[in-house]
Design a protein that fits this description.
Layout (H helix, E strand, L loop, with lengths): L15 H5 L15 E7 L5 E7 L1 H4 L4 E6 H6 L30 E2 L5 E7 L2 H8 L3 E6 L6 H4 L15 E7 L2 H10 L2 E12 L8 E7 L4 E5 L5 H12 L7 E4 L15 H13 L3 E4 L2 H7 L3 E12 L5 E13 L6 H12 L8 E10 L13 H19 L3 H8 L8 E2 L5 E2 L4 H11 L5 H10 L3 E10 L7 E8 L5 E5 L8 H13 L6 E4 L17 H27 L7 E4 L2 E4 L5 E3 H8 L15 E6 L7 E10 L6 E11 L6 H20 L30 E5 L17 H20 L12 H13 L2
Parallel strand pairs: 1-12, 10-11, 14-15, 20-21, 27-28
Antiparallel strand pairs: 1-5, 2-4, 2-6, 3-5, 7-15, 8-13, 9-10, 9-12, 13-14, 16-17, 18-26, 19-20, 19-25, 22-23, 23-24, 26-27
């Protein structure tokens, strides 16, 4: 049995055999009897008024059953996707920008769905979609955040004058202004957090059904949690009780935030199934997903750091112009604003923090959560500023970090943004990383690179994340007649290994065979109170709920054991899956008790009928995983190609339940961070056309782009939950983006060029920066 308290003890992912042998069950593997198929006619304009829709040719096409438009949804009273309340975090008066299932009157980005064609086959639906004739009166468009804020920019929504949906501030403006005015040293940077796309391996797919006799929907979808999907669809869009919609999620081929919430197509599909009385299936193509799924990031950040003559940090401020897209998605605004603000000042003593956010509407798809969701932005701001300050002050960047790090003796530490860091050994983690990365050996490697005509750069980032999401989650544990134990959760695996790690927790707590435990998730008809797998919260929240439920089972088992062993409950001890009368050899196993309880004819009132139990966990605050990442890059000055040569990650994610899984999380996150830094970028041309709508144009990292990653842990358990975990899902991204960008800036600086460069650092951009540096020296 795996000991979850020992982070050196692995358990191999048991779900992998199913996946690698093609036995996974994804939404596209499922067909419903009598199902029809859907395709969408989409806008080829970034902004415009829909003058008319000519549907006759499409309606008369072979196999077409029905065509549905936005006006049909409006007439039926179908609601909109809206910005949802976010427990514990209030944005204030944010403008309502409702997102319809199908465009109504206007189109506001290229790819917006206008009409849904339902046909007997997928090919017939796709062919008919090409016959829909849409007459659109073009309107001026704007896809760039800064351009959208200019006085003469075209206005996308009258409800958002100047294309500003809302503004938000944290911190005291007067105090921060005074601190910067008095500071002997101020470092300023303008940073760009580029627009990118999550690109899960499984595109969005949906099967929508409706039973007229029971007035019930069934919706099969790859989600990050059926409860979150139910809240949006039932409460806001169809305005029906939960029991009127069954939501099912099976295997999910990656999510990263993009499958966290419903989309317009799914609204149209559910309404269409209700209209025609048949199930409808839609499988999005990669091109459709790139066009219409939520994009991520995109912000222009003016940030600054004030320091005294000794290099102590006095204040940090960030003015963030954050893209929202044409519609505000369910929670992207909350997530990015909260996580950026709460993530400051990272691992450093900094008395004053000020964040000013402007939410900007543009003629682009909505911005949604993506791995990091503002956490990476906070780390990027601070770590770029720290390195720039070290250059400007002429001091060692490691020494500057150590001077300002929050010492372990000061923890718990209350930050200026109001968060309480409950645990952490930031300087010790930095020291671990420096040793593992052979920081002092860089000079020799740099000389060797120079002899080969290459430029070597060294990057470092010390970072912290605020994770946890909404603060409550439940769990069910049920004992079957067949000796199996079923864990029922509201979280949803999208590749994180839940089928392995959650049973590990229960096996350890109850002392029962690991192989006897299975996990159930993804059925809205049977799940505990909870939400979804978002924000690195799954093990923190659902794992802690399971741990608490195990404690309830042990107490119930103690009462049952006392009855079965004819002893007082106070004399019953529990260890390693067995209840024993203290000081005797009289004992009974927990699994035997579960079996015996089902066959008892009579029992005292204090003896439970079974061991089936439910428990929950409420987090008192967010959790704070942290770490230090160090990398080295090599640049070919002739081509501008950047090669990542070495990468070391030391992370404190609290108790490590399964090192294989956490290593995989770190490696995958680093790959995504590298993708954003070096190549990924959603781009539009001057007419608002999306020019990176396929993998021919949208560059993705491949195996040869990645170095061998040395990942290690420095666990400092969190006292906030029974497992001591902190969350591991986003450390790789949050640490890698500033680490890689600092390495690139270092290489440019060593080459005599300006270290100020924005993502993605393509070979052309790098080459031009180096050439410009040559011209000025």
């Amino acid at each position: 049995m795996t000991d979850v308290s020992d982070h050196k003890t692995p358990a191999y992912r048991r779900e992998d055999l199913r996946f690698i042998t093609g036995k996974g069950r994804y939404t596209d593997d499922i067909d419903v009897q009598g199902q029809a198929y859907a395709a969408f006619a989409r806008s080829d304009h970034a902004h415009g008024i829909i003058r008319s829709l000519e549907l006759t040719a499409a309606q008369d096409a072979p196999g077409v059953i029905r065509i549905i438009t936005g006006e049909d949804l409006l007439a039926a009273g179908v609601g909109f996707i809206k910005l949802l309340p976010f427990p514990g975090f209030d944005l204030g008066r944010a403008t309502e920008i409702p997102r319809p299932g199908l465009a109504q009157g206007h189109v506001r980005y290229v790819g917006e769905p206008i009409a849904m064609i339902i046909a007997e086959t997928a090919a017939q639906a796709a062919d008919a979609a090409l016959l829909v004739q849409v007459d659109i009166e073009p309107l001026p468009q704007v896809t760039d955040v800064e351009r959208a804020l200019e006085k003469d920019a075209p206005e996308i929504w009258p409800e958002a004058p100047g294309n500003v949906a809302f503004t938000w501030q944290s911190g005291h403006t007067t105090e921060i202004d005074r601190a910067f005015a008095a500071a002997p040293h101020v470092v300023e940077l303008k940073l760009v957090n580029t627009r990118i796309f999550a690109n899960p391996i499984e595109p969005r797919t949906c099967i929508a059904s409706y039973d007229k006799a029971t007035d019930r929907f069934e919706w099969i979808t790859p989600s990050q949690g059926v409860e979150y999907m139910a809240r949006v669809m039932c409460d806001y869009i169809f305005k029906i009780p939960d029991e009127k919609m069954t939501i099912l999620t099976y295997d999910v081929g990656g999510a990263f935030g993009v499958k966290e919430q419903p989309y317009p197509e799914e609204i149209a599909l559910l309404h269409g199934a209700r209209l025609i009385g048949r199930a409808i299936k839609w499988r999005g193509t990669r091109g459709e997903n790139l066009l219409s799924d939520n994009h991520a990031r995109e912000a222009v950040i003016d940030c600054a750091m004030a320091l005294d003559d000794d290099g102590n940090f006095l204040a940090v401020r960030a003015d963030v112009k954050s893209a929202m897209g044409a519609y505000i998605s369910c929670n992207a605004a909350h997530a990015s604003v909260r996580n950026t603000t709460y993530g400051l000042p990272q691992v450093y003593r900094t008395p004053l923090i000020h964040v000013d956010v402007t939410a900007v509407m543009t003629n682009t798809p909505s911005i949604g959560p993506y791995r990091g969701a503002g956490r990476e932005q906070a780390a990027y701001i601070v770590e770029r500023l720290v390195d720039e300050a070290a250059r400007k002050l002429g001091v060692d960047r490691v020494a500057l970090r150590k001077r300002n790090m929050i010492p372990a003796s000061a923890i718990p530490y209350r930050t200026p943004s109001g968060r309480l860091y409950d645990s952490g050994e930031f300087e010790a983690i930095l020291d671990d990383a420096l040793i593992k990365a052979d920081w002092k050996g860089f000079a020799a490697r740099e000389r060797e690179s120079r002899e080969r005509g290459k430029i070597r750069g060294q990057g470092i980032s010390c970072f912290l994340e605020c994770v946890g999401g909404t603060p409550h989650e439940g769990a069910f544990i049920r004992f079957g007649d067949d000796g199996r134990v079923r864990l029922v959760l509201a979280t949803q695996s999208g590749g994180q290994g839940h089928e392995t790690s959650f049973p590990q927790v229960v096996a350890e707590k109850l002392g029962i065979p690991y192989d006897s435990i299975e996990i159930a998730q993804g059925d809205s008809r049977d799940h505990p109170a909870g939400l979804a797998s978002i924000g690195s919260r799954s093990m923190i929240m659902a794992g802690s709920a399971l741990a608490n439920t195990c404690d309830i089972i042990v107490e119930k088992g103690r009462q049952a054991a006392a009855h079965l062993l004819e002893a007082a409950a106070t004399d019953i001890e529990f260890a390693h899956g067995e209840f024993r009368v203290a000081g005797t050899d009289r004992a009974i196993g927990l699994m035997e008790i579960a079996k015996r309880l089902r066959t008892l004819d009579t029992r005292p009132a204090d003896v439970p009928a079974d061991l089936d139990s439910s428990g929950d966990y409420t987090a008192p605050d967010m959790h704070f995983p942290n770490g230090c990442h160090i990398c080295e890059i090599e640049v070919d000055p002739q081509t501008g190609v950047v090669t990542v040569d070495r990468y070391v990650a030391v992370d404190d994610v609290g108790t490590v339940i399964n090192p294989h899984i956490v290593h995989g999380q770190v490696h995958g996150g680093v790959a995504q961070g590298l993708g954003q830094v070096l190549m990924e970028h959603c781009q539009y041309d001057d007419s608002g056309q999306f020019v990176t709508a396929s993998f021919m144009d949208y560059a993705m990292p491949r195996a040869h782009n990645l170095p061998s990653i040395e990942a290690d842990f420095h666990p400092v358990p969190s006292p906030k939950n029974p497992l001591g975990v902190k969350g591991a899902g986003e450390c790789g991204v949050t640490g890698s983006i500033p680490c890689l960008m600092n390495a690139i800036a270092d290489a440019l600086h060593r080459a005599g060029a300006s270290p100020l460069i924005d993502m993605p650092v393509t070979p052309e951009k790098m080459w031009r920066a180096l050439q410009k540096g040559k011209a000025t020296t």
